[in-house]
């Protein structure tokens, strides 16, 4: 159940990311050594592959609806029972808290690897430019994860 909920939440986030990135037409799906999947606008890391994005189409023009039409009234919109809505809110809060813990752990790991701007050089980085490129990518990952943590905290703040 929890896995399905996380998958649904990440699916929504991925859809929003793909829609936002469609103007750039370059979206990469990256899988790290732990099997974690991320969607990015750059594919400089190993394990990244470019997704084929459909061309963005213009939004459909808004239709005018007569004021007396029931489709425009709030009473025509389906409502959930109070207990059902509380259960949904509780599930959403739990998912956000789990996601926040996961992102905070990832951020701590990234910062430890980054070592205040001086990550440990690997054996395959004899070229200093390659080392700098990896350090810049690490810095970008940290910034992106910090933004994710802040966004999750804002969402949790709205629920309380």
What keywords describe this structure?
160 residues; 53% helix; three-stranded antiparallel beta sheet; extended; 2 domains; mainly alpha; single chain; 8% strand
How is this structure best described in words?
- There is one protein chain.
- The chain has 160 residues and is mainly α.
- The protein folds into 2 domains: 1-54, no CATH class; 80-160.
- Helices cover 53% and strands 8% of the residues.
- It has 3 helices and 3 strands, in the order αβββαα.
- It has helices at residues 2-21, 82-114, 128-159; strands at residues 27-31, 37-40, 48-51.
- It has a 3-stranded antiparallel beta sheet, with helices on one face.
- The chain is extended.
Summarize the structure.
The protein is mainly alpha-helical and 160 residues long. 53% of the residues lie in helices and 8% in strands. It has helices spanning 2-21, 82-114, 128-159; strands spanning 27-31, 37-40, 48-51.
Layout: helices, strands, pairs:
Blueprint: H1 2-21, E1 27-31, E2 37-40, E3 48-51, H2 82-114, H3 128-159
Antiparallel strand pairs: 1-2, 1-3
Helix pairs in contact: 2-3
Fraction of residues in helix: 40-55%
Strand content: 5-15%
Distance between the termini: 24 Å
Helix-and-strand structural type: mainly alpha
């Amino acid at each position: 159940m929890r896995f399905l909920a996380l998958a649904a939440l990440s699916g929504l986030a991925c859809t929003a990311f793909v829609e936002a990135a469609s103007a750039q037409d370059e979206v990469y799906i990256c899988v790290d050594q732990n099997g974690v999947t991320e969607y990015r606008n750059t594919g400089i890391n190993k394990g990244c592959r470019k997704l084929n994005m459909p061309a963005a189409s213009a939004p459909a023009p808004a239709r005018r609806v007569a004021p007396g039409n029931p489709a425009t009234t709030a009473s025509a919109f389906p409502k959930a029972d109070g207990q059902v809505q509380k259960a949904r809110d509780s599930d959403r809060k739990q998912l956000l808290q789990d996601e926040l813990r996961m992102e905070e752990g990832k951020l701590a790991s990234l910062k430890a690897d980054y070592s205040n701007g001086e990550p440990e050089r690997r054996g395959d980085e004899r070229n200093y430019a390659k080392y700098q490129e990896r350090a810049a990518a690490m810095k970008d990952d940290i910034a992106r994860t910090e933004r994710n943590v802040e966004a999750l905290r804002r969402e949790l703040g709205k629920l309380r």
